[in-house]
Write a structure and sequence with these properties.
Belongs to the ABC transporter superfamily. The chain is of the alpha+beta class. Helix content is 24%, strand content 35%. The chain starts with a strand and ends with a strand.
Length: 358
C-alpha cells in the first residue's frame, strides 16, 4: 500500500505545449493518503483516464513527479510499481479456465499452491463465479469476462494500489451494485489504496472515502460525498453531483443579501467586494414552494419520480428545480419559492466564496 503524491504534475499530448489549453491534464498538487479509497469522477474527456495511466506508468507526464510513499516512480515502468489495474473492457486469457485466470498473478510471483487455491476460491465467491471456476473463459459473456478481470486485479493482497478504469461499464445493473459492495468490503478488510475512475456519480459516491471531481483537465474538488453535496467548491461540482443538480442563479451579492432581478434574498453569511460573474447556488432539496412566502416563480411541470416530486420552474429567467415530498400536494396557488439561507452557496467566477458571520 502507498501514499500517492502528485507533485506539479501536468500532461499534454502535444509535443510542444505553449499554453494551458494545450494540456489535457492541468497542473496538480495533491497527496492521496495510504489506504484510502478514491474515485476520479467527471465527464468524458476531463482527464480521468490520463491521470490514472500516469499513476500506473502507462503514460509519462509532461512535467512534475509522482511518488509512491517517498519513492519517485515518475519514470518507473508499470512492472516496478507493484500495482493492479482493471480496465474498462475485459482482458482475460481465453484458453485458460476461470480458475487459471484468477490464479495467474499469484503463480507469476511463486506463491504457495495452498495460498493460491484459498485466494482464488475467496475471489470467485466475491465475484459470483464459484460454479464456473473450471470453465474456459472463451465463450463467456462480456460481463462474466469483466468479473474475471476484476477478480484478477483483486487477487493479490500486497499491491501498492488497486486502479480501476470504469470497470463496471459492461456489468449488468444488479451485479454492479453487488460488486461495488464487494469492493468496499475488500477495502475495509485489507486497506488497499484504491483509485476508481468513473463518470457515474452513484458509483463514485457509494464506493469512495473521497471523491476527486475533475473538469476540463483540472481537479476542482476533492472531498467526502457530504462535502461535495453541501459545499461544492465549483459550480461544475454543484451541477454534476446530485440529481437534479444544484440550481445556479446569477445574482448581485452585497453583505448578507443577494439581489436577483431587483428582488432581495437573505443569506446566512456576509460577503464583500464581489463583482462580475457572481451567482448563488442552492440544492433543489433546500428549495420550497409556498403560496405566500418567498420570491415569485413560474412552475412549468411536475415530475413524480416515486420517492419524491421534482418541480421544474422558471425563476427570473433561470431554470431551477425544486424537490417536494412524494405526499406533498402541489397546488396552482403555490407560485412562490423560498431557499434555506443556511444552504445557499455564493460563487464568483464559478468558485465558491467563503463568507463571514452575518
Amino acid at each position: 500500500m502507498a501514499r500517492i503524491t502528485l507533485d506539479n504534475l501536468a500532461h499534454s499530448y502535444s509535443p510542444n505545449p505553449k499554453k494551458e489549453a494545450d494540456y489535457a491534464l492541468k497542473e496538480l498538487n495533491h497527496v492521496w493518503n495510504d489506504g484510502e479509497a478514491y474515485a476520479l469522477l467527471g465527464a468524458s474527456g476531463c482527464g480521468k483516464s490520463t491521470l490514472l495511466n500516469i499513476i500506473s506508468g502507462l503514460l509519462q507526464p509532461s512535467q512534475g513527479r509522482i511518488l509512491f510513499g517517498d519513492s519517485d516512480v515518475t519514470f518507473a515502468p508499470t512492472t516496478d510499481r507493484n500495482i493492479a489495474q482493471v480496465f474498462q473492457f475485459p482482458v482475460v486469457y481465453d484458453t485458460m479456465t476461470v480458475r487459471q485466470n484468477l490464479a495467474f498473478p499469484l503463480r507469476n510471483r511463486g506463491e504457495r499452491p495452498a495460498y493460491i487455491a484459498s485466494r482464488v476460491q475467496a475471489i470467485a465467491a466475491m465475484i459470483g463465479m464459484e460454479a464456473q471456476l473450471d470453465r474456459k473463459a472463451q465463450g463467456l459473456t462480456a460481463d462474466a469476462k469483466q468479473k474475471i478481470s476484476l477478480g484478477r486485479g483483486m487477487v493479490r493482497e500486497d499491491v501498492n494500489a488497486l486502479l480501476f478504469d470504469e470497470p463496471l461499464t459492461v456489468i449488468d445493473p444488479h451485479m454492479k451494485w453487488e460488486l461495488r459492495t464487494q469492493l468496499k468490503s475488500l477495502h475495509r478488510e485489507f486497506g488497499h489504496t484504491m483509485i476508481y475512475v468513473t463518470h457515474d456519480q452513484t458509483e463514485a459516491l457509494t464506493f469512495a472515502d473521497k471523491v476527486v471531481v475533475m473538469h476540463e483537465g483540472r481537479v476542482v474538488q476533492m472531498g467526502t460525498p457530504e462535502e461535495l453535496f453541501e459545499r461544492p467548491e465549483h459550480t461544475f461540482v454543484g451541477y454534476f453531483i446530485g440529481s437534479p443538480g444544484m440550481n445556479i442563479i446569477p445574482a448581485r451579492v452585497e453583505g448578507n443579501q443577494a439581489y436577483i432581478n431587483g428582488s432581495q434574498l437573505s443569506l446566512a453569511e456576509a460577503y464583500t467586494g464581489l463583482s462580475g460573474n457572481v451567482a448563488i447556488g442552492v440544492r433543489p432539496d433546500y428549495a420550497r414552494l409556498s403560496e405566500t412566502d418567498g420570491l415569485p416563480v413560474n412552475i412549468r411541470r411536475v415530475e413524480d419520480v416515486g420517492r419524491h416530486k421534482i418541480i421544474r420552474a422558471d425563476f427570473f429567467g433561470t431554470d431551477i428545480s425544486i424537490i417536494a415530498r412524494e405526499d406533498e400536494t402541489i397546488s396552482p396557488d403555490m407560485n412562490r419559492v423560498t431557499f434555506d439561507p443556511a444552504h445557499i452557496n455564493v460563487y464568483h467566477d464559478d468558485w465558491r466564496v467563503q463568507g463571514e458571520a452575518a
